[in-house]
Amino acid sequence: NQNFLKLQDELASTENQILTARTRFNESVEIYNGYVLSTPKNLVLGSYKETPFFKSVEGADKPVEVKF
What we know:
This protein is mainly α. The chain has helices at residues 2-36, 39-44.
């Protein structure tokens, strides 16, 4: 059915958007942590702490079950 194919495309698109957002966030965190924790800056920016990377919960890599 055409509606089901459209739904599959939407789910794949949503998963790709989430992956892209997670990757961009982790790249930004890496840059931020490198800046804040570098030697001369960490003396001035001592109150800024390292930001953790985004980690999904266990099992989030599995496809979502869709019931009809």
